[in-house]
From TrEMBL, chain A:
InterPro entries: Peptide/Ni-bd, SBP_5, SBP_5_dom, TAT_signal. This is ABC transporter substrate-binding protein. The keyword Cytoplasm does not apply. Gene3D superfamilies: Dipeptide-binding Protein, Domain 3, Periplasmic binding protein-like II. Residues 119-502 form the Solute-binding protein family domain. Residues 1-23 form the signal peptide. It comes from Streptomyces macrolidinus. Pfam families: SBP_bac_5 (PF00496). The keyword 4Fe-4S does not apply.
UniProtKB/TrEMBL annotation, chain B:
The chain crosses the membrane at residues 9-30, 113-134, 146-167, 187-206, 242-268, 293-319. It is a multi-pass membrane protein. It comes from Streptomyces macrolidinus. Belongs to the binding-protein-dependent transport system permease family. This is ABC transporter permease. Residues 107-316 form the ABC transmembrane type-1 domain. SUPFAM superfamilies: MetI-like. Its main location: membrane. It is found in: Cell membrane. The lineage of its organism: Bacteria, Bacillati, Actinomycetota, Actinomycetes, Kitasatosporales. It holds the Pfam family BPD_transp_1_N.
TrEMBL record, chain C:
Residues 12-260 form the ABC transporter domain. Belongs to the ABC transporter superfamily. Signal peptide: none annotated. Its main location: membrane. It comes from Streptomyces macrolidinus. GO terms for molecular function: ATP binding. The keyword Nucleotide-binding applies. It holds the Pfam family oligo_HPY. NCBIfam families: oligo_HPY. InterPro entries: AAA+_ATPase, ABC_Ni/Peptide_Import, ABC_transporter-like_ATP-bd, ABC_transporter-like_CS, Oligopep_ABC_C, P-loop_NTPase. This is ABC transporter ATP-binding protein. It comes from the Bacteria. Keywords: ATP-binding, Cell membrane, Membrane, Nucleotide-binding, Transport. It is a peripheral membrane protein. The lineage of its organism: Bacteria, Bacillati, Actinomycetota, Actinomycetes, Kitasatosporales.
Length: 588, 326, 345
């Protein structure tokens, strides 16, 4: 199962349904090389550091990769084209993986060799100056930052990018900042974009600095600005809808040619100055994308490793059918790491109101059996909560003993159920009607029946699965969901998925958890100015919602990729679940 | 002839009209909202409404169909995107391109695939079939017949990867399949399509071998073929001028229909060899819920099939003077 | 026109044509001999499957060499045809010997114009140009009585009427002035008027060019009209042979009696029911023992000692007249008289 936009559509048929892992801005480990399974990963993940860097950290150039050299051409074997290149229309990791070399943002993540992430100033000299406990943020632009035509990137361009997020054609992008800048849940009603000659009142510019006035306190706003949805767009070169095909580059590469669904060529942007960029190395001279290569075909070609394919990288995680072959024939050319997604099974709080019943379901749940059907270790590492190890503050806190007993404990569950006098409780499980999920259903049915439940399975058309479980009055007790934080703090996990205000039709609070304590804790963590403290608070909320039985933890999802023999330092980008174009190099 | 053309073209137009209307209705019978695709992770009802309006899918269905239909003749204006000149098959909000433009872009791939492979399968299919017919009942006939039975029961999704593995990945005898426009580099066009041609042709050759053989066997037993021999004409003349002439009609019919289908895009072949033709475009527009694109591909594909039928009938009339066009 | 030649123009001796099929050997022709003089017409009669068409296809060498075994001798004007090379035969076919087929619609190519089909025979054998061939085709069409031949020459067979197609077929066969013409039931599918016209045409042409004709039919009426000699075939063998008048007036073989009995006569009473020969033609895969006609023969019991079933009667030809039957001449006269009497009643 993979979660970039288009593949997601294949699986579900609905793009906007967001209970799957749609995007990622998260921190994490890049366990480059091979994984030995889930046993130690949780512990390993704890060692990954996610921190806000200093002004010194924000200075270019990026530290050299040892042994790397400039030059050469890299080939990318993609099954599908990028759905968007217009930064304001980018939400999904699939697009961000390439956008990161085309569009610089005010802030960005500097990835360490160990996979650690440091939030640094990318276009800005630092990670911003916060005032009013997070309501006011000011950023100052670096010197020497240029567009692909050699003109300076100005604060007007930065403001223009923010304002474009309100236009009627950029509906695909993130909406966080728009809401905070207008104080409205329907931001387009307050402001309709920059094309009618009006600017947002909440953004001030002066010289090289830009100040954002937010309607609410957002102490991690500097993380949010690393999203491509908030990248600058040059006022003079804004081609509106057409910008999506050929964005004006501020990064180390620019689009030379792009034929939708067929090919795209990126070449060096000569006006990009590495000395201003603490994040990107940009070794190869050119990236050649070919679209429409099936994931299986791409892996066959990479295993064969001939001709240009020696310089190629698969853009799609290795399909289950090819993993065995790939890891036996060319283990050294595969690279795997945790992705930013967490897979869970929601428990509908509207229907399953008894905590003992929820506990029994969670304890009985056959997580290991399910994982075996979905690809085993390559599917992911057993999860203990909702928060991914790639989110700042993550703690492994195994509330339900899932790491100890991943197979589930129906006996214990039955005990719990018996004690509560709830033996024979009916559990309605809704699932997407496809072959794998049909098998998964059987495993779940066996476990729950053994635990003393009356199991009812409801297969749903996979194209409308999210529409159906997204209804607040849905008639199901348990259903699957996936999530990935939009940036690596707890906010974009817990606010959308556990706050009582998000219990609405097609909202993201699929468990329908309405808990005053949780709401209060989310509010407190959101407003906490000290990010170290805030991270601990999010971890506490993770434990809290896990204990409340809002969901059954499943796995932290994993990715595995492959590259040709003539490429070096091909590593997973912990932000975007794919390879880092800007850190790989072509071997001599 | 003129009457035939006018009548058949009118019929074709009606057919296409019906196909487009049915596609339109079927698409909306499926409860999926194309607007949801363009709506972000946090999708508010207002945003959704805005997208629906921009896409023109907030109008009543008949109105939408009319907009689409009239666009073909007078063009359309999309708010914020610009004019789509006639013949306008619509605008894809997934690819952000005009449907006609995309179809035009994909068509050469599909056409090259269809034409190239048909040259191969016609030469080998008809050649082998004729040989088998001449050597009726002999070893060569039996070998050809059983080989074609085996080949025709094979599937692209099996033969394709095997051929790739053997010819490309392992031995490097042939090039990795890829499409290069003929006008850009004829040599690369040829080498890039060789593997798909051969694989596609392998399977189709079998059909044409069997059809050619059975048609030839049938016409060889016709009285007029015997007459031709009784006149003292040589075996060769009899075989090609008389028997083949008679066998050609049914073959042309089948080939015409096959060609119509092939020009509509060989989905599995295109997928197997990572070629971006009409077949892949159709598959993706279904997956992406892209109605304008799907409609466009469907109409173009249907047009090829309908056109192929007209051409077949005209060619048949040229081959067989008993057929009169009206 | 030299009927007194020492050597007959066409001589078929002990011809055997056997096909191998999946079920076994089919003995389509099993020891057939006959002669044909120049300018004469031999009528071959017999039911379907009696071997008459096979005989004539074999003369032209149009049998399938892979599955057919041909024994005996066929000499045309002194030239042995059995075993002759394909190229030798190609030069003779359509040139020295030609054939008119039964179903003109099926036997003419639907894909080529009449003119072309006639002309290509001419071109093949004379090396004439296209233009010359066309002129010749028009001439031939005129000769066989096609109106406006210069226009109809470009028509396709389907644009011709049945009679016209048969004439065109004749024109095609005669385009190289063949010395031997084999006409395989050329009038069967035509109505009586057209039939008569075609017959007249053939007779006229024979008179003009002195062509030898083998006329195959199952219709004794047609034989009466055109033939000089008659050969009656049954089960791949000749059962009776002789000059037309004799065979028709005093038929000697019970099978011929049967054929004559089953023939409607224009001058006879209309309401007399026809008396078809009971039973069906013999299987050539497993032909009956002895006389092949004996299972259907009403007189088989008149021969002593069951000889009809065990002993194959020998065909003895004396002065071009003969039959293959075990009945004695007396018996024959007696039975024929009875038949004539019953028919008159």
């Amino acid at each position: 199962m993979s979660f970039s936009r288009r593949n997601f559509l294949i699986a579900t048929g609905v793009a906007a349904a967001s209970s799957t892992v749609l995007s990622a801005c998260s921190s994490g480990s890049s366990n480059s090389g091979n994984s030995n399974g889930g046993k130690h990963d949780a512990a390993k993940a704890n060692t990954i550091t996610i921190k806000v860097g200093t002004a010194e950290d924000s200075k270019g150039p990026a530290p050299e990769v040892s042994g790397a050299k400039k030059g050469g051409k890299v080939y990318l074997l993609n099954d599908d084209d990028f759905s968007h290149l217009d930064p304001q229309r980018i939400y999904y990791a699939w697009n961000s993986l390439v956008e990161v070399v085309l569009a610089r943002t005010l802030t960005g993540y500097k990835i360490g060799d160990d996979g650690s992430m440091t939030l640094v100033g990318d276009l800005a000299v630092d990670t911003g100056v916060m005032k009013d406990e997070g309501k006011t943020w000011t950023f100052t632009l670096k010197d020497g930052i240029k567009w692909e035509d050699g003109s300076d990137i100005t604060v007007d361009d930065v403001r223009h990018g923010m304002e474009r997020g309100f236009a009627d054609f950029t509906t695909e992008g993130a909406t966080y900042a728009q809401v905070w800048l207008t104080g409205s849940e329907e931001p387009r009603k307050s402001y309709s974009g920059p094309y009618k000659g009006k600017h947002l009142k909440s953004i001030e510019t002066s010289g090289k600095s830009i100040t954002f006035h937010l309607a609410e306190a957002r102490p991690d706003f500097n993380y949010v600005l690393a999203m491509h949805s908030y990248a600058p767009v040059p006022v003079k070169h804004d081609t509106k809808q057409a910008y999506d095909k050929k964005p004006f580059s501020s990064g180390p590469y620019k689009v030379k040619s792009h034929t939708t669904d067929k090919s795209m060529v990126l070449v060096r942007n000569e006006h990009w100055d590495p000395n201003t960029d603490p994040i990107r190395n940009a070794y190869p001279d050119e990236f050649d994308f070919t679209f429409g290569i099936e994931a299986e075909t791409a892996i066959d070609r990479l295993i064969a490793d001939t001709g240009n394919d020696q310089y190629a990288v698969s853009w799609r995680t290795i399909p289950q059918s090819k993993i065995q072959q790939a890891t036996t024939k060319a283990k050294d050319r595969t690279f795997t790491a945790l992705g930013s997604g967490t897979s869970v099974y929601w428990i509908n709080q509207t229907r399953v109101t008894d905590m003992s019943v929820r506990e029994a379901i969670i304890r009985a749940w056959p997580t290991a059996g399910i994982r075996r059907l979905q690809g085993g270790e390559n599917r992911g590492d057993y999860a203990t909560g909702f928060m991914s190890p790639l989110v700042a503050g993550y703690k492994s806190q195994d509330v339900w003993g899932k790491l100890k007993k991943p197979e589930g404990d129906p006996a214990k569950a039955k005990e719990v159920l018996k004690k509560a006098g709830k033996l024979g409780t009916k559990v309605v499980y809704a699932y997407q009607n496809d072959p794998v999920n049909a098998k998964v259903k059987v495993v779940i049915e066996n476990a729950l029946t053994k635990a003393g439940f009356e199991f009812v399975g409801k297969p749903l058309d996979s194209t409308t699965f999210y529409d159906q479980i997204g209804m607040v009055d849905n008639p199901y007790d348990v259903y699957w969901g996936g999530w990935s934080a939009d940036w690596p703090t707890g906010y974009s996990d817990f606010m959308p998925c556990f706050h009582s205000s998000k219990v609405v039709d097609q909202g993201n609070n699929y468990s329908h958890l309405k808990n005053k304590d949780v709401d209060a804790a989310i509010k407190a963590a959101t407003e906490e100015v000290d990010q170290t403290k805030a991270n601990d608070m999010w971890a506490a909320i993770d434990k809290q919602v896990t204990e409340l039985g809002a969901f059954i933890p499943d796995v932290y999802m994993r990715r595995i990729y492959m590259h040709g023999s003539k490429l070096g330092n091909v590593k997973m980008d912990p932000n975007f679940d794919g390879c880092m174009l800007y850190k790989m190099y072509v071997k001599a | 002839m003129l009457r035939f053309l006018v009548r058949r073209l009118l019929g074709a137009a009606v057919t296409l009209l019906i196909i487009s209307a049915i596609t339109f209705m079927l698409f909306y019978a499926v409860p999926r909202d194309p607007a949801r695709m363009a709506c972000g992770k946090v999708c508010t009802p207002d945003t959704l409404e805005l997208i629906r309006h921009n896409m023109g899918i907030d109008d009543p269905l008949p109105q939408q169909y009319w907009n689409w239909l009239s666009g073909i003749f007078v063009g359309r204006d999309y708010t914020g995107i610009g004019n789509c000149n006639a013949p306008c098959l619509g605008y894809s909000f997934v690819n952000h391109e005009s449907v006609l433009g995309t179809v035009k872009d994909r068509f050469p791939t599909t056409a090259s695939l269809a034409l190239g492979s048909s040259v191969v399968f016609l030469i080998f299919g008809i050649g082998t079939g004729m040989l088998a017919a001449v050597k009726q009942g002999k070893a060569l006939d039996k070998i050809a017949s059983s080989a074609s039975l085996v080949a025709s029961s094979m599937q692209i999704y099996f033969v394709g990867p095997v051929a790739l593995y053997l010819l490309v990945y392992q031995t490097h005898l042939l090039d990795q399949p890829a499409y290069t426009p003929f006008t850009e580099n004829p040599a690369a066009w040829f080498t890039g399509l060789l593997v798909p041609w051969l694989v596609l042709a392998l399977i189709w050759t079998a059909n044409y071998t069997r059809m050619t053989r059975s048609q030839m066997v049938e016409t060889l037993s016709e009285d007029y073929v015997r007459t031709a021999r009784a006149k003292g004409l040589s075996q060769r003349t009899v075989f090609f001028r008389f028997a083949w002439r008679g066998a050609m009609g049914p073959l042309v019919t089948i080939f015409g229909i096959d060609m119509g289908v092939l020009l509509g895009g060989a989905m599995i072949t295109e997928k197997t060899f990572s070629l971006q033709g009409l077949g892949m475009l159709a598959v993706k527009s279904v997956i992406n819920n892209d109605l304008p694109m799907l409609l466009g591909v469907m109409i173009v594909t249907a047009a090829f099939v309908v056109l192929a039928n007209i051409v077949v009938d005209a060619v048949y009339a040229m081959i067989d003077p008993r057929i009169r066009l009206a | 026109m030299t009927s007194t030649d020492q050597q007959p123009f066409l001589s078929v001796k002990d011809l055997k044509v056997h096909f191998s099929t999946e079920d076994g050997i089919v003995k389509a022709v099993d020891g057939l001999s006959f002669d044909l003089a120049r300018g004469k017409t031999l009528g071959i009669v017999g039911e379907s499957g009696s071997g008459k068409s096979v005989t004539n296809l074999t003369i032209l060498g149009l049998h399938n060499p892979d599955s057919t075994e041909v024994e005996g001798s066929i000499t045309l004007d002194g030239q042995e045809l059995n075993g002759a090379s394909e190229s030798t035969l190609e030069k003779l076919r359509g040139n020295k010997m030609a054939m008119i087929f039964q179903d003109a619609l099926a036997s003419l190519s639907p894909y080529h114009t009449i003119g072309r089909q006639i002309g290509e025979t001419y071109r093949k054998h004379t090396g004439a140009s296209k233009q010359e061939a066309r002129v010749r085709a028009i001439e031939m069409l005129r000769r066989v009585g096609i109106p406006q031949p210069d226009r109809r020459v470009d028509d396709y067979p389907h644009q011709f009427s049945g009679g016209m197609r048969q004439r065109a077929m004749i024109a095609m066969a005669l385009v190289c002035d063949p010395e031997l013409l084999i006409a395989d039931e050329p009038t069967t599918a035509l109505d009586v008027t057209v039939q008569a016209q075609i017959m007249d045409l053939l007779k006229d042409l024979q008179q003009e060019f002195g062509t030898s004709i083998i006329f195959i039919t199952h219709d004794l009426g047609v034989i009466a009209d055109i033939a000089d000699d008659v050969l009656v075939m049954y089960g791949g063998r000749c059962v009776e042979r002789g000059p037309k008048e004799e065979v028709l007036r005093t038929p000697q073989h019970p099978y011929t009696w049967g054929l004559l009995g089953s023939m409607p006569t224009l001058d006879g009473p209309v309401d007399v029911p026809l008396t078809p020969i009971p039973g069906s033609p013999p299987s050539l895969l497993n032909p009956p023992s002895g006389c092949r006609f004996h299972p259907r023969c009403a007189f088989a019991n008149k021969v002593d000692g069951n000889r009809c079933a065990t002993e194959s009667p020998v065909l003895e030809i004396v002065d071009g007249r003969g039959n293959a039957c075990h009945l004695t001449d007396e018996q024959r006269r007696e039975f024929l008289a009875d038949l004539a009497a019953s028919k008159a009643n």
